[in-house]
Amino acid sequence: MPELPEVETVKNGLEPVMRGNRIKSVNVRRAGLRFPFPENMAARLTGNRVEGLKRRAKYILISLDSGEILLVHLGMTGRFTIYNGETGSGHVPGVFYHQSDIGAHDHVIFDMEGGETIVYADPRRFGIMDLFAQEEELTHPLLAHLGVEPLGNALTADFLNEAWRGRKMPLKAALLDQKTIAGLGNIYVCEALYRAGLSPRRAATTITAKSGPTKRLELLVRMVRDVIGEAIDAGGSSLRDYAHTDGELGYFQHSFQAYDQEGNACAKEGCGGTINRIVQSGRSTFFCPTCQR
DNA sequence: AGCTCGACCTGCACGC
DNA sequence: TGCGTGCAGGTCGAGC
Q1: According to the 3-state scheme, what is the secondary structure of chain A?
Q2: pLDDT value, residue A53
Q3: Which bases of chain B come closer than 7 Å to a protein CB?
Q4: What confidence category does residue A49 fall into, taking pLDDT thresholds of 50, 70 and 90?
Q5: pTM check: above 0.85
Q6: Residue whose CA is minimally distant from C12 C1'
Q7: Distance C16 C1' – A186 CA (angstroms)
């Protein structure tokens, strides 16, 4: 279920275990996920020290002292779990991962020199792993065309006013378009539009203006930042909780006001409407037709 | 050029 | 209990 806040949480959970640690061995248990794994992936990872981790949109970039970057996307169902090794002093006291624990969906298993075992599992296999030289970070085909970060300085009402001028695409689809804003997913787009009181069906261009961004557009930008920021904060706190129970990263409970609330009363003061579910571009949209215009 | 939709996979919840 | 159907948090690329 990873959207951007989950990916950020996963990256933050991997960081203390991976950074500065060396990859002792990698068990690659199938030929690929959504795409084939890069040539000789295990060999190219083995023996490397991890220099740093960062997130770009919903991608995690893990830089190695070989000069390469390991790119990871969690797809729909990808997850990392951190275990202690037999002799390790790792992240999760007392939780070990043995040969006999390897599950059908455990596709890539990293054994770290510090003793930790990091397992990538992904039942639907929509995830991605790739390896490329650090110089290619801006030209890599999966990264080159990404738009602005939702929490970055480049996401402004002025920016969207230009990007969306003349775009008849519904707001829902416009917000999901990774070439404009990179990293928004179905849940948080529903939530942001709900908070902003904007219909997901409204054409994006209708909240732009030649003279400058409309109040509606300014509010939407604020709501996008708010909802993503709050979810990252919630992930940060749940990460601390998870770290004491098991090593699983990236799944935490949110309270959504629109997403998956079909039939429930709209939570907005004095609205009295009901959350509806419609399908747009083949995906569920949840919204309140009474207060979202 | 802009936009929608199918395809890629497995698992789960639901109704009969 | 078993089976069929539809649905799922992503995104690339074909085709209108």
Answers
A1: CCCHHHHHHHHHHHHHHHECCEEEEEEECCCECCCECCCCHHHHHCCCEEEEEEEECCEEEEEECCCEEEEEECCCCCEEEEEECCCCCCCCCCCECCHHHCCCCEEEEEEECCCEEEEEECCCCCCEEEEEEHHHCCCCCCCCCCCECCCCCCCCHHHHHHHHCCCCCEHHHHHHCCCCECCCCHHHHHHHHHHHCCCCCCEHHHHCCCCCCCHHHHHHHHHHHHHHHHHHHHHHHHHHHHHHHCCECCCCCCCCCCCCCCCCECCCCCCCCECEEEEECCEEEEECCCCCC
A2: 97
A3: 2-11
A4: very high
A5: yes
A6: A142
A7: 25
